[in-house]
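Margin note: ligand = iron/sulfur cluster.
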Amino acid sequence: MSVNLKELSLKQETLASGHRLCAGCGIGTIVRMLTHACDYPLVVANATGCCEVSTTVYPYTAWRSSWIHNAFENASATISGVEAAYKSLRRQGKLDQEFRFMAIGGDGGTFDIGIQSLSGALERGHRFVYVCYDNEAYMNTGIQRSSATPLGANTTTSPVGKVIPGKSRNRKNLTEIVVGHRIPYIAQASPSNWRDLIRKARKAFETDGPAFLNILQPCVPGWRYEPNQSIELARRAVETCYWPLYEVENGEYKVNYQPKVKLPLTEFIKDQGRFSHLLRPANAEVLAALQANIDREWELLLKRAGVAPKEAQPAATT
Amino acid sequence: MATKTANRIAVTGNAGVAQAMRQIRPDVVAAYPITPQSDVVEEFSTFVAEGTVPTEFLPVESEHSALSACVGASAAGARVMTATSSQGLAYMWEVLYIAAGNRCPIVMINVNRALSAPINIHCDHSDSMGTLHSGWIQLYCKNAQEGYDSTIMAVRIAEHPDIQLPVMVCYDGFIVSHGITSLEMVDDEEVASFIGTRKPPYSLLDAEHPISMGNLAFTDYYMEVKRQQAEAMRHAPRVIQEVQEEFGKLTGRHYGMFETYRLDDADFVLVALNSTASTSEIVVDELRGKGVKAGILRPRVMRPFPWQEIAQALSRASAVAVLDRAQSPGGNGGPLAIEVRSALYELERRPRMINGIYGLGGRDILMSDIRSVYDRLQKLAEGRGPSEFEFYLGVRGD
Ligand SMILES: Cc1ncc(C[n+]2csc(CCOP(=O)(O)OP(=O)(O)O)c2C)c(N)n1
Ligand code: SF4
Ligand SMILES: [Mg+2]
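Resulting structure:
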């Protein structure tokens, strides 16, 4: 499955320009990659969040595919209904055309309020691709913490104060929760590694059953960086193993990318305003704890995939 | 009244409604169990398992997802049904408004049951009364026959091109849902030709004409969308009556926006929903035997509420008691009383009115309770007796 840039450039864009995502927002890039990977007419169910509000301000829409927004927590249930209608109408000979189905939501709509709906739809085995664009907070409502927000991050509901230095809990590993559902295809991807992302999206759309993609999405005002740095930050997330690229196909783990030298986490966080306080000596412990969490998750992943670490790792931070 | 299609069976209200669902053959059903609705879904699952219906059945993980999936399926052009009760309906609340706002002609059975707390599985009307403002058409049924008939008619009403709104069919938990009565079914083929097939004006599964549904509408457009939704509801009385007339011709069973019993010359009128209205007829007959001009008005359609017609029908009464099987604590009476009292406002000469709260959490309503209500009405008309507007029936310490 080679990914050919020339071929992709000839495809019609499903997401038209003129949407109202922030300059530099990773969502537009990710959605374009995803929709390029689908060769069938697509129905998209979009959870409430930045992607939804920025692409469909009535009476306009940026979507050239069929698209539905229902509520914040129910994109998976909504796409279940669409897919069920599709199956039923096809079975009864009321519909000929073949479709593919995608639900897309932010980390809030997936890790938090939408996890029940997601879990139910995965268990019922609908043929759909669930995409979480993970920008690690509730961005649309003003950068509040979610269970995907990393330890120490400064958000409007985990603010940095004299007593508490940002979020006090580690982020949840949603991809692993999805693995527990034993669905055929699960992957983590990053827009920095676009070939890998598109290949995974293709696999997901070809899966005859539920597939899940967790995609890191840099957010300019939420992470606080220059708008031209989105893809660079996504790349550093991969190079520090903050966001490992891997897939779980029928229960088999495969790490898709192992950095030659695993960069210290500071390389990822140093240009982000949400982490700036972690570079102060007073918060060294928080930074160390965050690094320890990343290291631990990475080791666990390598173990699950049966891969040996590439080489002795450089000392964590500072 | 027997018709050429007469087909009598003895069933519970829920089993009767499940039969209606079998005959409707919805493309998609998504539901979650809750007492006293469960056996509607259980029974329907067996039709799916036996291959009797072509339905794609989604045994979802919650009512929120049940209605969410219904919205998705309906937007995809399917004919869609669900069923719930009480906490389940409350859990759907957010999506009720979305189903109506997105103009999804979903048909939902709601078996009326009390809301927590305290938790209670028995009948009252707090669940569906709490959703009066959600934009759904609401039909209230006195017995299994009406539940069965209304379920079939609801499909036609919901999908009518001038309407495109969801419809809720309500009947009393246990009293109707679990009581076995005789029910006359319509032939399968006649149901099929009565409801026809759904012809959605647009669908998510039309690749040539992709749509976006559920967009963000700000201050500049939101109100136009909601105004159009209200317009659809304004067409509903006409459509409901057309569908009911056609159904009457087919079955010999005629329904109106509300039902009356010995109302024409009544001085003392009881207004109540569902089974209570029909069982109170005995008391009316008894009072009539004693020369008391008692009557009953039973609203059948709560949305759209036929307020002008109801006001007219009550205009010559001297006193009216609205019985509410639900509360609106701190409100201007129970939910039904609020509707009826405001309907009467337009009348030049208004009857006196009181509001009895009864039957919460399945508390029995006795013949003696109904007699006591008529007694209050008589005293009220004579200018004596308790003057309070709202009172509780059959409760300790009152
Ligand atoms: C039931 C419900 N609760 C809260 C909200 C308010 N709300 C809308 S979007 C959102 C956060 C979305 O966060 P996420 O899913 O991470 O998407 P993002 O905004 O980051 O794109 C919240 C809290 C809502 N719309 N519905
Ligand atoms: S706030 Fe963040 S996620 Fe939302 S549109 Fe802007 S960059 Fe994208
Ligand atoms: Mg987010």
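Residues A 48-51, 72-73, 105-109, 135, 138-141, 146 surround thiamine diphosphate (ligand 1) (CB under 6 Å).
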